[in-house]
Structures are given as structure tokens and as C-alpha cells.
Amino acid sequence: MKRFGKCDRAKESKKQKLLKEIEDRKLPYLTPKDVQFEQLSKAKYAKLYIRRASCVPQEIHQKVQQGLTTLQDCRCFAQDLVQIKEKDVLTPVYRLLVGDPGSTYCYLNTRLFTIPWPSRGVEVKYSSDEIGEACKAIKDLNEYLHVEAMKVLLDDCSADVEEIGFVAKAATSTLIKDSGSMKDGTYQSKQSSTSAVLKDRTSFNVTLLNYMDPSRMKYLKEEPYFGMGKMAVSWHHDENLVERSTVAVYNYSCDDLGPAADESNTSTKGRDPAVWHVGLKIAWDIATPGLAFPLDPGDCYFMLDDLNMTHQHCVLSGMQPRFSSTHRVAECSSGTLDYIFQRCDVAMKNLQKDPMLGIPSLISLELDSVKQTEEIHNEVEFEWLRQFWFQGKRSAKASDWWFEPMALLEKSWREMEQMVRFHIMMLIMLAEKGYCIILRL
Ligand SMILES: O=C(O)CCC(=O)C(=O)O
Ligand SMILES: [Fe+2]
């Protein structure tokens, strides 16, 4: 997994430079009570789309909020031990990954393993029926957010055929890159290719659920640039996502304070610290004011297209406990069980068994094939087994689904261990026979 490299160090020093430039003065930011809020949102934050709770079906609210509460009551959430600037840190928010069976999601050097949501053809035993229902509700929410995100993106496309909107343009430019040219395509085929691209970028395969009760979290960092107050999640870009994919978030702040939109009537400056907000800013830009928008229970927001690349976001704590469900298209090319089992198969191709005696031996002693086995051996050990067991039996609170594949991976790992041992034995034997061995591993 990625370590704190040169690039991170360069970013850190750029950040320190910015903080120095700002010194003690704080940068301006806007909330909906500021008159320029609308204008700034349109001009600089156009790819942020908010859907207020009143426009989301009541059935979704009821089932999702019940589901999140159940998962919390069953203690399925846990703090993650992540790496920030080479230090190990516990996240203030408690998290749980739900998603496609066998998928994982990496962030800040930690691999999280999905509690599978119900999927056709996959049998999942949940620890209780209520947990099963909760995962079903999250899956239905996922489907709803996918459909809504598609509508928003396609609306933007169909607004005007000539002057297509930002998202369609981005999708179309990908198509041009992929197909070399669009000259011979009909309008319909362009449209359907565009919607296929947009479909891929909104087919969320995981959701990272968050939970935090601020009354139990005494120490929270202050937002450093704008003075937005306490942060539950610091400024960041979401990692490991399919390029230009949407991130859709359902907010459930267990608010008994009345609607957050009340903010628009108050005359105090800045955001209301009692209400949960999401903060947004343009990355590395200290000229454009930031945004803090308040969230009522059931509000959803979407970070469309490349917003997550060009902008950073943070979560500003309110007073009440809060859940969120953050739906993502995780980049899974090396993050699924299918993938890692295929890798194991590749390594096993170099192992044969004597048909009579059943004694295993290596087929090839070529350096490349031994090296490849060792790479796969390490990948299974460090990216999967250690990552999984380090998190203990946390996933078992919701389901025992991962234990069987983990046992299979461990079996493969043992076989690869044996293959390395064979190889070393061969080298020793050759050395004893007087061969000169040059190791280039
Ligand atoms: O809770 C939210 O609104 C967003 C959380 C977030 O940014 C994250 O989990 O990456
Ligand atoms: Fe995020």
C-alpha cells in the first residue's frame, strides 16, 4: 500500500506555505445566510448538487434511518486506525463499509472489507435479521442515489444538444479519447455512449458509513483555514475512486434542534456550531471563499464529475450524533476477492505434485517466476490477511461472510510459503554442489 512519499512531502510543504501566508487571519467562507452564497455556488461549486430531505421518498428515510440505528445498536461501527503523514491515527468517526460482496476499499493505507449487501446469486448469513434488513435498506438507498445521480448528470446533457453541460462534455471527451473519433457516430449512439459512461461513474459499489457522537468525542481538530469550527473529518479528497465518478452522501444527523435552514434567519457571522455542515474549498486556492452548507436529517448531497479532484471537502461537527452514508465507485481493479484469487492461481501454476507420491515441487526455477510468486505471496499477506486480521473480528458483528475466503487465502499463502522454501532449498543444494549463485531478487 502507498507510503508517505515524495509527493506527499511536497504537498505538506505547500500546505504549510499556505498556512504561513494566511498566518492568523482567517479566509472568508459563505453559508446560505450570506447573500453571495447562491452566486458563489453557481460560479465555483457548480458540481455540488444538494437534494433536500423533502424531495427524497419517505420510505427511504424511514428504512435507512432505522437501519443505521440498528447497525449502531449492534456495535457494527469501529474507529479505523489509518496512516496520516506516516503516523498511525484513530479516526474520530466510527465507520463501516457495506457494498458488493468480496469488494474492499482502501483509504489512508487501510483496506476495509465490505459487509455484503444483498446481491443476486450470493448467499449472505447476517448476524441477525435486523442487520440483514439494514443492509437491504442501504442497498436500496444505493440504487436510489445511483438513479438520481444519473438523472442529474443526464439532465445536464439534454439541456441543450449543441451546448452540452459540463458533465456530458467530460463524458464525451472520454469517449473521444477511447474511440479515437466521434465523426462517424450518430447522435443517438453518442447519447447512449455518454449515458453508458455516466452509468459507470454512478454505479456505486460500496458505501462507507460514518457515525460520530460529538458529546463522546471531546477532542476534535479546529478547521485551520477559515475558522469553520470543529471538524469530524478533516479536509481531504476521497481516495481510490474511479476517475470522475460521483460521490453521493445521505446525511442523518439525529437532530432535535429544528431545521438547519433556520440558519438563514440568524444574524451571527459564520456557521452555526450546533448544526452539522459539510465544508468545501477549491484545492490550493486561497482566493476563492470556502463554502459551509448545513445539513438537515435526510438531506443528500452529490459531488459530481471531477468535483472531488478539483475541490476538497471536510465535515464540520454539530452537537447531535450523526450518521452518513457515502456512496462511491471504488477503483477495485486490485481490490476484489476475484482478483486476489486469480493472482493466487497465477502463483500456483508454478507448483506441481508428483502424481504417484503427491510430493510438491516447483515447475520453474526461473528468476522471473520465483519473483512473481514472491510478489503475490506478499500481496496476499500484507494487503489481505494482515489488513483483515489487524481489524480483528470487527466484520463478524454483522456477518461471518469473510472468514471462509480468508481461510482459503491463508491456505494459498501457506502454499506460497512452501514454494519460497523449495526455492531456497534448491539454491542451497546448488551452492553445495559448487555452483556460483548470483541473487538478484
Ligand atoms: O459524512 C460526510 O458527509 C462525508 C464524509 C466523508 O467525507 C468521507 O467519509 O470521506
Ligand atoms: Fe470524503
What are the SSEs and their pairings?
Elements: H1 6-22, E1 29-30, H2 37-44, E2 48-51, H3 58-73, E3 78-84, E4 87-99, E5 104-107, E6 110-113, E7 115-116, H4 129-158, H5 166-179, H6 187-200, E8 206-212, E9 231-236, E10 247-253, E11 277-282, E12 290-294, E13 300-303, H7 307-310, E14 311-316, E15 322-328, H8 337-348, E16 351-353, E17 360-362, H9 367-390, H10 403-432
Parallel strand pairs: 1-12, 4-7
Antiparallel strand pairs: 2-13, 3-4, 4-8, 5-6, 8-15, 9-14, 10-13, 10-15, 11-12, 11-14, 16-17
Helix pairs in contact: 3-4, 4-5, 5-6, 8-9, 8-10, 9-10
The protein binds 2-oxoglutaric acid and fe (ii) ion.
Structural commentary:
InterPro entries: AlkB-like_sf, FTO, FTO_C, FTO_C_sf, FTO_cat_dom. It comes from Scyliorhinus torazame. Its main location: cytoplasm. By secondary structure, the protein is α+β, with helices and mostly antiparallel strands. It folds into 2 domains: 6-328, Jelly Rolls (Sandwich); 337-432, Up-down Bundle (Methane Monooxygenase Hydroxylase, Chain G, domain 1), CATH 1.20.58.1470. Helix content is 38%, strand content 20%. It is built from 10 helices and 17 strands. It has helices spanning 6-22, 37-44, 58-73, 129-158, 166-179, 187-200, 307-310, 337-348, 367-390, 403-432; strands at residues 29-30, 48-51, 78-84, 87-99, 104-107, 110-113, 115-116, 206-212, 231-236, 247-253, 277-282, 290-294, 300-303, 311-316, 322-328, 351-353, 360-362. The strands form 4 sheets. Strands 2, 3, 4, 7, 8, 10, 13 and 15 form an 8-stranded mixed β-sheet that branches. A hairpin with a 2-residue loop joins β3 (78-84) and β4 (87-99).
